[in-house]
Amino acid sequence: MTYxxxxxxxxxxxxxxxDAVVSANERSxxxxxxxxxxxxxxxxxxxSDLTQQSVHRIVDTLAERGIVLxxxxxxxxxxxxxxxxxQLNGGxxxxxxxxxxxxxxDISIVDLAGKTLAESSILLWDRGMRKSLDLVREELAxxxxxxxxxxxxxxxxxFGIAGVHQxxxxxxxSLPLHEWSLIxxxxxxxxxxxxxxxxxxxxxxxxxxxxxxxxxxHIKNLAYLSFNYxxxxxxxxxxxxxxGGHGNAGEFSQMYDHAENLRRxxxxxxxxxxxxxxxNVPSISYLRKNFDRDWQGVEEWVExxxxxxxxxxxxxxxxxxxxxxxxxxxxxxxxxxxxxxxxEFFGRPRYGVSRPNPKLIISEIASDASSMGAxxxxxxxxxx
Length: 384
Hints:
With 384 residues, the chain is α/β, with parallel strands linked by helices. It is built from twelve helices and 14 strands.
């Protein structure tokens, strides 16, 4: 039987006499409330295609279930019956996000309203997969106890891994994650955590974080560059993540041949360059937190990867034409700026007028984007 996290959602999260968490109309209203915090019920009606009566009925139902909170009347809306402000009830549900990279498992806990409740990480070192997951489960339990979070309110787990999607919940990851590769992760993780688990490539989890918490709230068509141990990304069209025919849209490293692959902007190669220059950078996490652009080898590496980087940016521009290209993943902001400063668009002006090029934006998500995206993914998939 094919693994499906939707079929494993616990009954108390579902609608009465239904197998859905919310209806299509409920989802559309919850999405508007997510995008417009502090929206009043009358303003919600104005943004929706539904009638006033339908909006009131649906909001009342969502409030009765505890998904939406009705606040104080919103001032300044003119005469008539006061309209309460609406907000998502973070206490209704929360989710845990895990991001497995070459050296660490990052953990994020996010509630239904999008509030980050906890963040931590587990170093992989030479631990096996099972031992690492045991430590993650202990860390999650510690967060739950400290924050007073009920296990019943844990909606599910989002799981991102730095690897290519092979099908189902199987991924082909880099050598440090060989034990996690080419196995069905979904059923194994469900058995381990006792909650439904949604899986996805880690770079796309980072893209989801950008959609939900970053520039994707305002820019609906973008390309996300995920600089990690490897290098990948994601594409966003009209606010939605594009998966492609096999779930691997945005695997930008696949455009390079064997020789070029060694000159793509993957942070593993920067770490190797730094180590050859006697700069002690033991992990990608350390690199992000302690980056110094004056380290011996940084400038040399940036110059080496610039041609491959520029070809990628222009390929994205030519094929996809996004409004923005976002620099995310685990790249230090100063390092991202060094690449931005070296960007060259190859487009040729016609009649003295150039084609509009995408904005280059360094992500402002300070937390681990992949684990943040993994945490919000189960909630966004099923609620809004």
